[in-house]
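TICKET: design request
STATUS: open
ATTACHED STRUCTURE:
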């Protein structure tokens, strides 16, 4: 039977640990955040052929990005990580990490795992601060780099463990 997906079941974790480490430090993205949207930004080519009255469009790929804005929440692993990128004006490889995207509504019928995928990503800071008398915010974009590693995730408490899908 169809079931509405809850926003709390579309989950992102950012690797806030040391890049390249075997064990990832997955930190939940979304604390003190009211809107976190995935933008797929389709990359298309449209051509009008001389023998057709209607143009043809080809979908070439996606430029996936996750746009977020959170209240400055010192001590939260994601805030501390992104604020560190801001403070250090990180660019290039220094702004690259990994993101884990989980569809927690899509649970395996054979075990307690959920459909998930990881991507390399670049985190960029868009703005920082805010109006007087309000809690400041930090706005950021998680730009997805390349193809995903498909897999599944299980949880021990609130900690995810990602397992890549083995190709046949």
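STATUS: resolved
RESOLUTION: sequence designed for all positions
ATTACHED SEQUENCE:
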């Amino acid at each position: 039977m169809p079931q509405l997906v809850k926003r709390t079941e579309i989950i992102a974790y950012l690797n806030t640990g040391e890049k390249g480490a075997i064990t990832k430090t997955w930190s939940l993205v979304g604390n003190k955040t009211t809107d976190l949207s995935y933008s797929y930004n389709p990359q298309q080519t449209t051509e009008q052929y001389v023998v057709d009255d209607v143009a043809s469009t080809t979908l070439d790929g996606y430029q996936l990005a996750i746009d977020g804005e959170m209240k400055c929440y010192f001590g939260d692993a994601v805030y501390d990580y992104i604020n560190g990128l801001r403070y250090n004006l990180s660019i290039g490889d220094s702004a690259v990490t990994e993101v884990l995207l989980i569809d927690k509504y899509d649970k395996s019928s054979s075990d307690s795992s959920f459909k998930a995928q990881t991507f390399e990503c670049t985190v960029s800071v868009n703005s920082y601060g805010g109006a007087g008398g309000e809690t400041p915010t930090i706005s950021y974009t998680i730009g997805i780099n390349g193809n995903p590693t498909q897999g599944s995730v299980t949880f021990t408490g609130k900690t995810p463990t990602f397992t890549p899908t083995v190709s046949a």
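CLOSING REMARK: The mean pLDDT is 95. Residues 77-87 form the longest helix (11 residues).
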